[in-house]
């Protein structure tokens, strides 16, 4: 449903001699099948929004090709526009209009008659559970209510493909879960959904497949479970951040990292935000060995926890940085 090859975007910033080029997206390839929810996961500035904006025909790629619902993005952008819906990052603008009024206007902008537009607005209000506040001014809505309206506006013309830029950024956990339900419902109605996120849990539980993007390049791609399986074994997280073990020098984390990185049963030791992540074959056999090694060196850690690899472990393995920091 979406196919992109070598998609690239660079921006010229500044003028004259001081002008520089920002390579926002450095050639990305990906394919999204009909009825999938696919996510671009990456930190701020990775190139997620720029990719989405290119696919939604809002900015022209500097290079590469893409087809959306069988239509060439560069040759027939107007036809692409008819087949897609786009929800931008939350704008934070609050106006005096109401959900019902904006939904009718949006449908009218897609060329529908007044009576059809009104019917569609009623259906969208019901589908997105906007009934309680549809005739109230938008500036009185909560963040989650406002975001549901944004998505309802984006799908009023029943597009085949939906682009969502950070659909749950800044929402509280219940509103995020609710938005995930709405997105799944759209997929059940046959829509293909491409979204961006910097939330690990969103990529993990909502997306069928994930592309991890960093500094304009895709560094990993697959289903969340296949990506996590790439990190074989277990993760042992040793906490050095709790108040009783840390001192002004950052506690024993640097010494512990050096010591355990050299241990034969540790594949990799990565300090992340006051915690030492150890990648091991089996947490059950590694934990007693880790404790003994630390105590022999006079190092007393805080809690030690075993867990399965997460998407953040994948991100760390591919980029050397944590997305959770
Ligand atoms: N119009 C522009 N002019 C110059 N640079 C830009 C422009 N738009 C984006 N960039 C730069 O391109 C890079 C990628 O930005 P982009 O917004 O795509 O990242 P992102 O992954 O969506 O980040 P975020 O999660 O913060 O939205 C950044 O370095 C950004 O500053």
From TrEMBL:
Protein localization: Cell membrane
Signal peptide (UniProt feature, chain positions): none
Spans through the membrane: none
Keywords: ATP-binding, Nucleotide-binding, Transport
Gene3D superfamilies hit by this protein: P-loop containing nucleotide triphosphate hydrolases
Record GO terms (molecular function): ATP binding
Topological category with respect to the lipid bilayer: Peripheral membrane protein
Major localisation: membrane
InterPro entries per record: AAA+_ATPase, ABC_transporter-like_ATP-bd, ABC_transporter-like_CS, DrrA, DrrA1/2-like_C, P-loop_NTPase
A Pfam cross-reference name: ABC_tran
Boundaries of every ABC transporter domain copy: 2-240
Matching NCBIfam families: drrA
Family recorded in the similarity comment: Belongs to the ABC transporter superfamily. Drug exporter-1 (DrugE1) (TC 3.A.1.105) family.
Cross-referenced PANTHER family: ABC TRANSPORTER, LINEARMYCIN RESISTANCE ATP-BINDING PROTEIN LNRL
Annotated protein name in UniProt: ABC-2 type transport system ATP-binding protein
Organism: Micromonospora echinospora
Biological classification of the source: Bacteria, Bacillati, Actinomycetota, Actinomycetes, Micromonosporales
């Amino acid at each position: 449903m979406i196919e992109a090859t070598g998609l690239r975007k660079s921006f010229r910033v500044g003028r004259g001699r001081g002008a520089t080029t920002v390579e926002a997206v450095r050639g990305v390839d990906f394919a999204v099948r009909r009825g999938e929810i696919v996510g671009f996961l990456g930190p701020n500035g990775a190139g997620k929004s720029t990719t989405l904006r290119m696919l939604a025909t809002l900015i022209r790629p500097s290079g590469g090709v893409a087809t959306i619902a069988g239509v060439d993005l560069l040759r027939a952008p107007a036809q692409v526009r008819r087949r897609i819906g786009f929800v931008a990052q939350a704008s934070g603008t609050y106006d005096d209009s109401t959900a019902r009024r904006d939904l009718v206007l949006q449908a009218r902008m897609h060329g529908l008659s007044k009576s059809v537009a009104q019917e569609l607005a009623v259906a969208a209000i019901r589908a997105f559970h906007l009934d309680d506040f549809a005739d109230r001014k938008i500036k009185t809505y909560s963040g989650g209510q406002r975001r549901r309206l944004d998505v309802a506006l984006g799908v009023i013309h029943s597009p085949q493909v939906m682009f969502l830029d950070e659909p749950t950024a800044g929402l509280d956990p219940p509103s995020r879960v609710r938005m995930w339900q709405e997105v799944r419902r759209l997929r059940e109605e046959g829509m293909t959904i491409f979204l961006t996120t910097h939330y690990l849990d969103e990529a993990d539980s909502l997306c069928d497949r994930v592309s991890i993007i960093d500094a304009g390049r895709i560094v990993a791609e697959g289903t969340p479970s296949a990506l996590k399986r790439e990190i074989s074994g277990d993760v042992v997280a040793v906490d050095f951040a709790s108040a009783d073990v840390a001192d002004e020098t950052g506690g024993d984390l640097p010494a512990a990292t050096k010591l355990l990185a050299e241990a034969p049963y540790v594949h990799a030791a990565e300090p992340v935000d006051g915690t030492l992540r150890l990648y091991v074959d089996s947490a059950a056999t590694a934990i007693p060995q880790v404790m003994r090694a630390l105590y022999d060196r006079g190092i007393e850690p805080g809690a030690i926890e075993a867990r399965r690899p997460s998407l953040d472990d994948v991100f760390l393995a591919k980029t050397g940085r944590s997305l959770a920091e």
